[in-house]
Major facilitator superfamily (MFS) profile domain-containing protein
Amino acid sequence: MISIAPRGKMLKSLALFSVLGATVNFQEGYANSYPNTAYLSFQQLFNDSYIHRGVKNGLSETLFTWLWSLALYIWFIGYLLGTFLTPLLTERYGRKISLLVANLIAVCGSSIGFVSAVCKIPELFFVSRLVASTSSGLSFGSLILFLQETTSTEYRGLMSFFSETTFILCNVLGIAFGMNAIFGDNLPVLTGIAVIPAIIATLLCIPLKETPKFLLLNRNDRSGALKSLEFYQGNKEDNDEILDEMLLEAPTNKKKEPVWRSVYTVLVTPHLRHAFFIGCAALQVIVGIWAIVYLSTDLLSTLFTEDEAQMASLIFIIANFCAGLCGMAIVERFGRRPLVLWLGSLNTLSLALYVLFDQLAAVHHQFRWGTIAAMVLNGVTYGLGLGPIAFFITSELVSQQYRSVVQSMVFAVNTAASFAFSFATLPAFDMFKSWSFIPLFIVPSCISLLFLYFKMPETKGREVHDIVDELWRKTSTNPVDFEAETMTISTSSSSLDMNHNKKSNFTNI
């Protein structure tokens, strides 16, 4: 019988986490990219459906634009829900069970999308995106925690890179399959493809073991943690020492907190709040990628034909993915901090170049090709390291007790920001053309990069407890141990809750 356990073998680990990342991230990457190139087919589906119901001539252009925007951006509502569910499930049931639940929801969501295309019911397409995005919000955060906690410190960045790189791969497939030359004119096939990876991901999660850190620190199961460590990293002589190193992340206060109380603790504890701000700033730098993934064909259609715009979108996403492959080779050679700062600066510069070439195209038509080059540069800098690091950096800044909560808080803020900025992009572009990129993306990115320059620590090759200790030393004003500080705040919030309960009981009496 063939075992999927990597047991410390690099090639087997790469294979396992590649397949896991690709299948788990397929929903988010694929479902968010095929509408980019297949939107005309969806417009036909919407029109045919309403003509069949008796609406003469179908939907007006304006009404379709509003419905299509709702269909696209309803994704962020479900994703936000999935993000809120992440700390609840990951802390109570573990990383593996959370992934399993997310994949089962993905099967439902993708199946509803397939039915909507076959039966030509656009309302079901809305429902499918809402359900699928909920699964994506849960699976993305759970997958990062899973990858971070099952790999050794020296390969933590490399394995975490898989989450975003496989997401980009799914973007490539979505944009390519949505083109008219492939499945763009066959919506049942285009939407139904997503069911297969969701089923594979569900089956793949079943034989996996829970992460050793969760078993050791959350369940206090050293024996189970040792078996899990052997499953992922092999039977090594220093496994007990690795577990002892993990225990340095264990909080002094063993009492479990409700999620809302943990959120309060994060916001009032300086080093946790600092990690939260760093995560938000890192993700704010890449908010513009959503507008490009969703709308690149629309944006480029002002300068190119539809076929040229589709091909340019495909070139952009392929360059993004190829850069991601290169990024896996450099992420452990260079620090997270220089990669984020340098690539973030180039990424922001690419948006400025897009504005420049778009404006120059009005002077001379050949300058329009510069917009494609700028878009490709944006994709390359994102895939090379900026995007993947921005998504997993938060988990390297926070100890086990608050890791899933802080990460979910960061993802929630980023989801809200991505929704707001992406939703505003098309109307702002119609009104102000590419000048709209300056207030929407360029200025916020510059502010975020400036904050990261002064506040972001290096995390490559360092144990999490060491990084947390550095953050505490930089932010704390009291000469006390940071665990004691966190415990005091947690106890304080518990006291507030107890006082509230006492008042409630007194009122009832």
Notes: The chain is about 80% helix and 0% strand. Residues 175 and 194 are 13 Å apart (CA to CA).
